Amino acid sequence: MSITLRGSLRLRAVSLKLSYHIVPRRPMASSSSTAAGPVRLVLFDIFDTLCTPRMPIYEQYHEEVLKTSLHSSSISPESIRQGFKIAYKEMNQIWPLYGKHTDPPTAPEDWWAELIRRCMVHAGGDEQEVLQVMPRLGPALLERFESDEGYEPFPEALTTLVRLRRKGVKVSLVSNADPRILKTLDALSITHLLSYPPTLSWDVELSKPDPAIFQKACESCGESVGEGVIMVGDELKADYRGAINAGLEARLIRRPGEWSDGAVRAPEEDLQGVHVIRDLDEVVQEVDRRNLTQNPGRPPDKPA
């Protein structure tokens, strides 16, 4: 039996899976900064694009475990790391879309609590001991990752949003996340810098790289897909390829150094022909080049 934050919750497995929608073929937008038109809208991925864990997630989980009575010698940061991967895969197979279509529907908080329980069992914890600590461990981890204790914005993230808005460019987000991410965005002072609310998988029941989720994002921002709408993200398939297939422009951000443990990277990625940027400042610089061509009397904006 699974314990959730709201007590005993009976979840019934459903076979629903996010399906890829067939969308009309549209003219492909250029992925190159040589595109002549002005930039109208910039869409950003969230994790590993605008923000990153303050420390590896599995280490943060282990810190919270040490605050409980769950002292199994087999539970370590590495065992949690592996246990999380197994639990996350299980949850997405049995209760996709964060349990939205289970009967009865599951709240995202309960979905994550069940994932945490499974993670700890897979990490080596005794099942009964894990059940006993869940009333404390579950809320502690949920609250941690809904705050700036779990995540931090990249140094240039907030100023990038501010500078783009000052230039009259719309900004919003596209994420395969549930509504809990909204609390994180508030805590990181990102929400109030957006032109429009984020487009989330939970809300639109679509998932990157499905082209339809990018088209939904454009619609919610009052823009049509095509040249002048740029998607910025760190995942080649989900963010870059998905946006290109939807008819948007795309920029793949790959910062120098190591990436977070949760970042999706193929062992041998083919980046030939892919427009790669090293930081978000490059997006602002591109907007300066392209939009000043349309408004030559306006000087470039200085960093905030």
UniProtKB/TrEMBL annotation:
GO MF entries: phosphatase activity
Record's signal peptide: none
InterPro entries, sorted: HAD-like_hydrolase_domain (IPR051828), HAD-like_sf (IPR036412), HAD-SF_hydro_IA (IPR006439), HAD-SF_hydro_IA_REG-2-like_cap (IPR044924), HAD_sf (IPR023214)
Assigned GO CC terms: nucleus
NCBIfam families: HAD-SF-IA-v1
This protein's name: HAD-like domain-containing protein
Organism of provenance: Kockovaella imperatae
